[in-house]
Amino acid sequence: MSDSTDKGLEVDYTVDGAISEMGMSLEEVTNELDSRAAMDTTFDGGMIFNTECCDPYPLALKAHKMFMNRNMMKEQNQSVKGMEIEVIQMLSSVFGANDHSGHNGYVASCGTEANIVAFWAAKRKNPGRNKVIVPSHAHYAKIKLESILGLEVQQVPVGKDFKLDINLIEKLIDENTLGIIATTGTSLLGIIDPISELAKLKQKYDIHLHVDAAYGGFLIPFLRYKGYDLPDIGFKAGADSITLDPHKLGLCPLGAGVILFSDSSYIDAISYMADFPKFKSITLQGSRSGGPIASTWAMLKHLGMEGYGRLAQSHMEKVDYFMQKLKGLPEITYATKPTLTVLGLMYKGDDSMTSELHQYLTSKGFKITPGNDPCILRIIMHHHVKYNHIDNLFKHIKAGVAQLNNKYKRVAI
Ligand SMILES: Cc1ncc(COP(=O)(O)O)c(C=O)c1O
Question: I need a labelling partner for 281 at 20 to 30 A (CA). Which of 114, 295, 312, 335 fits?
Answer without folding.
Answer: 295
